[in-house]
Queue: 4 jobs
Job 1
Amino acid sequence: MTVQGFVAAGLEPVSEVFAANFERAGDYAEVGAALCVYRKGEMVVDLWAGHADAARTRPWKADTLVNVWSTTKTATAVAVARCVQDGLIAYDKPVADVWPEFAQAGKGAVTVAHVMSHQAGLPGFMEPTTLDDFHDWDRVCARLAAQAPVFEPGSLNSYHAATYGFLAGEIVRRASGRTLGALLREDVTGPLGADFHIGLPASEDARVAELLPADHPAEAPLDSLPLPVRLGLSNPEQDPGRVNTRAWRAAELPALNGHASARGVARLCAALAEGGTLDGVEVLKPGTLTAMTAVAADRPDLLLGFNPQWGMGVAHNLIGVYGPNPRAFGHSGWGGSFGCADPDARVAIGYVLNHMGPELVGDPRGKGLADAVFAALG
């Protein structure tokens, strides 16, 4: 196994930690992965290694894409923030202002902020729902519009693992007239040159790594969990094997199926770390970025079990997975990927991989890399 790419002078320890992940055995053994870091708007780390398939016949390349699960949510948060910036929606206004059907079942006062900070009371589906249903956007959104909250909106937060994407995506579609994936591509990632896609065209399939499920996935004792947590985890239960299909890649699932390279994740986060603009491309105005990252929920999340200090679709860094600064923000994905931005240090990190770890949160590979980056930067 050979690590390819480069690190800027002084960041050699980051390469060593990245390489050491490929020496792991067991649940966190690396198969293929990439890491990209920006500092003060410049790329200072760009590493990749390993293989893009279980058979280890396809080498991982600099532009290899992989499903990044909930790391997608940062891109989705940016798409919603663009609608706020354009005056199409406001975080403190009811969702029903742009999506009238959403007012059903007592949800007339649920705001965009409630949705974006996982406080809307819709962490999963009450009606039995399958992954096949996820390919019928209108059907799923109608189901959420008709559903009553399972807790009083704004009274607590419980991670809306899958429903977040449909809720945010339908808000964007109603407000802008475009799907969230199209808005992101046309207004954000395309102009920025960030290799990050929600709804992947078939022309890009040759670049996509095969996602490999965890060897020993963690099992939750569903019967003993509160209803919001049960819904978020089990209706429907996710299937990593489905990710490796054309239908999944083509769909727009803004909570779950972003396909990105490490460079793409890091470049998007670098724009956020730089106040909203990178290389002359304005992703968000400073005021919009401030509103997106403002703390909206400062309590433990029922599903996650810790305080993510939710902003408008991004989590803050109270538990230290994105370096030492609690003001850093971003999102991690099931199995280990993450993207983060530290606006004080002006550092952004993107890390992607194809061998999923067993936990929803807490993968040591990513934390070790983030720690190494900030230690080397001093």
Job 2
Amino acid sequence: MPVIIDGTNGITQAGEFNSDSSFGFKNRLINGQMTFDQRNAGASVTVASSRNYYLDRFTIFAQTGSKLTIQQNAGSVTPPVGFTNYAGITVSTAVSPLGAADQYMFEQQIEGYNVADLNFGSANAKTVTLSFWVRSSLTGTFAGSISNGAEDRTFPFTYTISSANTWTQASITIAGDTTGTWLTTNGSGLRLKLNLGTGTTYSGTANAWTSSPYITSVTGTVNLINTVNATWYITGVQLEVGSTATSFDYRSIGTELQLCQRYTQVRRGGEGSNSAITFCGVGNARTSATWYGSDKLSVTMRTFPSLTVTNPTSFQLYNTSGIATTTISIDISDRDYMLAGAAVASGLTTSQFYTFTTTNSNGLLVYSAEL
């Protein structure tokens, strides 16, 4: 709606003003413009079976692994105007026909705190609008759904891609659910699922809330997974209050990164400024074979994180006497969301101070507090 700014009389609003979509956390999704890929740093990844995280905050659920690949900015596709990144999914091995209970989906779970004001599950449930830019080598009617965390209240929807290999903006308006249980704490408050391939068991009827569990798709819509080498790209994903899709909520890059880091924080070798050293912690040797130190995380995470170590032999402990060892196993315990310790084969001097580092880009510490 037009706003007139007058130096004498201040601001005048002409027409209706939608305050829900004008201030604060307008887009309830995080990393909707696909800027951050902390785990994979833009590399192409083969999608594993079950649910796994790829670009920050986004998962792919795959009934069977090694059927899809995903990459930030896959190929040489130019993103839509206003965006510099996208997620690109390619079918490497087709699944056709799909089993009745098969599911392949692109998904983000939203923390309950971030959707508490939607009042889903009550008579005051708010209308929301989902919008995104999408491009595929296939055309036709595609599907997705939103659901509660338990996936027993679901709204299946459709969107259309009319031109192959052309960016299209989709917009879906959804009246809020007045029943069901919707978490408003740090659990899974709302799930957005975009279908890549779903069998008959988990396909439903569009544009109506249902208590049928785990619905991902709409009967008769396109299943990308059926076609080898088919592509599906997406960016600018936004879920907001109101019945109209508004401009994308561009948060500052620092703010968006911190939002991502509430769920995942990564230490990767080769990213530091001192000869490409990444400092992962500091502490003291308790014995000749055990070091205890800390790695203060950037933000407080959603819950106590797990720690996954990739290529542990690429990490090292060193001090002024040099490198102690390259054989390190790493544990985490409740130390105020910090790294707790590492056990080494030998070589430490008891009570001496050591820094914990890596220069190898294949060396990763992934702290995860994902939903």
Job 3
Amino acid sequence: MSAFVIGYYAVLIATSVLFAYLGWKRWFMLVFTLTLVSFVTGIVGGVGALRAITIFVALLALAGGISYAFKEFLVQISGPNVAKELRTAPLTASFGMFVIFTYAIAGIFAPWIAPFGESEVISSAFAPPDSEMLLGADQLGRDMFSRIIFGARNTVGIALLATALAFIMGALAGLLAAVKGGWFDQLMGRVADVIMSVPSLIFALLMLSILGPQVWVIIVVVAVIYSPRVFRLTRAVAGNIVVMDYIEAAKLRGEGDWYLIRREILPNSTAPLAAEFGLEFCFVFLLIAGLSFLGLGIQPPTADWGSMVRENATLISFGDMTPLIPAAAIALLTVAVNFVVDWMLFRSSGLKER
């Protein structure tokens, strides 16, 4: 038995005993469960499996530490009201905000962060990583690391624009339908039903095949696909508000529809709409990445994570995990946004932690 195995189990058992002595039941159960799992995993997978568990736990602890530090940083630079809300945020939400912040910095400052241009050929095809290329080269000899940095600007930026347009169209239609009612409400509802009845991927592929995969076409098509979802939520939220007494009082004062939307309905429906924006962004982001993977999304030579997975998929046959890096970037951002959205939904629901 190697010194690593002895030290591994000694640390786990000592930590379990310490937590049990201090009365930290949750942490004791967590560490002791890890100890039991490690016993079984060590027998089946040997030292390599234990090293993998060690790396995973270390990365998890690193993510937890970064999340806690980032939350404290946000608390220090925020106002009293925002700081009070941030103190109640779980570590998962803090981790999500840190990832979103990192992606935003990478996208905004991509030309200064990336060592090479997104279309600059600097090496041979599929060149291995070296001191200049951290992740090696793609099928044309372009730096993979630089293209991933630029992909944060292109993929995330286009998804954000498409989500914003879908939200503007859907929320505006939903608010007007709730205020006006009658035939306008029925018409908007039926239009939303027709669009939602067509599978989103098929609809997007059909429209892009007809109109061409230009960036503005992608944004408009994706916005049209997801605006009915926003319409339905906005119509439901606003429909519960327009029957309130203060809305009736505003109508008796002679206030118009736009006043009711801006001053009465919208301020009281901000929380669920903000959470819905995060969810819609995840769906839009994954759809655009999928379209790029199929070849009808963002076109070369523009760097895009979906197309980067497709272009370098050959490397997987040779045991090279480089194509999985842009796929991991897509998954990480999606998970991070969902962490933040879950926290926002928890806050807007009015539930309290025990």
Job 4
Amino acid sequence: MTNRRKRIGSQGNPPADGSRSRTFRTGPARGGPVWLYGRHAVGAALANPERRLHRLLVAGEPPSPPDSPRIAAEPVSREAIERVLPAGAVHQGVALLADPAVEMSVDEFCTAAALAETGLAVVLDQVSDPQNVGAVLRSAAVFGAGCVIVPDRHAPSVTGALAKAASGALETVPLIRAVNLARALAALKEAGFWCIGLDAGADTPIGSAGRFPRTALVLGAEDEGLRRLTRDGCDLLVRIDGHGPLASLNVSNAAAVALYAVTRGAGGAGQKR
């Protein structure tokens, strides 16, 4: 009924000799400075010591004006802010030009998770809309996930729109880019994670999935769902049952529901049935 697959290194201990090759990028993020906007996104970036800050533009007196000892605010008009941002950006009178945050690799996350008693990760398979990825980051932060993993290709760049949708979560939940998503799932398994994929056609409802000390939720794009290799890399496929006339949820909403389902109850994901 369920498609539980053979676990790899279920005790979560990395090889003692460090023989597993590093296939994931680490260190500074690629790309130059990017404009962030909106009070939550800008405020969180100002509080992140890993961010290198370049310019802080403030129009008028926002209800919660950003403040940072690391950079002085430049008083400007709203029109001046709009000139440096994409058309239609809801900036709330603040914009910050900053370097991308330092990236974490899948290996680094797995090494840290292997030493912890519990862990939670979200894996997105070719979810390309920055608003959706940002919303998933926000839900991941609310429910205590340690990271959101996306493929190196077929995933959006970290833009101001993504940061705005994340509402500050981009500074607290690492967005990790994996060169190969199937290998990323294998690395998570080595670190003791149980990989649960969301699939509308799965036999098991998510409420019956049980609890696992370390859980990785795997979600696909809204139209295509999980790709075959990604689906094959999951230990278990589950579905979210609805009761209304619509057949499915937006991927960011599905992520929020799934995160609640696997963390609900005393101890959340740390409780196993």
